[in-house]
Write a structure and sequence with these properties.
43% helix, 6 helices, Muramoyl-pentapeptide Carboxypeptidase, domain 2, signal, 193 residues, alpha+beta
């Protein structure tokens, strides 16, 4: 009888630890992916920062885009500029949820170097040109045209590992392009290809 009680207590203790760990992961994820929600729940989320290198223009930017419970307007404008359509120079607002997602990815990978951006915002003209000349892989109504997608590399990190980390976030779409060595991330529905 004594062994059964100890076994039950051991199982209850394991369930308690599992529940605690699951709660901790859920709380951390909410702080990483939804800073406004974290603030509303009474938690103070640390500032959010992204570090980017546009591979087409050579421009670099490290910006604290969220602090003290709100997105920082000047930082968002600077991010919009670096993620512009480099072919047309068109600038479009980038969805802050996308920034939260790439911030979470950067943190999950423990990356230090700036994310290398292959594509951020795409104008409808650029998107159509890429559809016609790209040989597939460019959606007619791409999330890039809404400022809700980014194609990236993480220097020093295998692209397959970047893909796995992005998939674990479950924050939107994840596309894997091993021949071109980049990962697509968007804040649309959760899906992968």
């Amino acid at each position: 009888m004594m062994r059964d009680e100890r076994a039950e207590q051991g199982r209850a203790s394991m369930v308690g630890r599992r529940s605690f760990l699951c709660f901790g992961v859920a709380a951390a994820t909410s702080v990483i992916l939804d800073p406004a929600q974290a603030l509303a729940a009474g938690r103070v989320a640390p500032p959010r920062r992204v570090s980017l290198l546009n591979t087409h223009t050579g421009e670099r930017l490290t910006a604290e885009y969220w602090n003290r419970g709100r997105y920082q307007r000047d930082a968002l404008r600077a991010i919009d500029r670096i993620l512009r359509d480099h072919r047309t120079d068109a600038v479009h607002p980038i969805d802050p949820g996308l920034l939260d997602t790439i911030h979470a990815l950067h943190a999950r990978l423990g990356a230090r170097a700036p994310l290398h951006v292959i594509s951020g915002y795409r104008s409808p003209e650029t998107n159509e040109m890429l559809r016609e000349t790209g040989g597939g892989g460019v959606a007619r109504s791409s999330f890039h045209m809404r400022g809700m997608a980014i194609d990236i590399r993480v220097p020093g990190t295998d692209t397959r590992m970047v893909r796995r980390a992005a998939l674990r976030l479950r924050a939107g779409g994840v596309g894997f392009y091993p021949q071109s060595d980049f990962v697509h991330m968007d804040v649309g529905p959760v899906r992968s290809w």
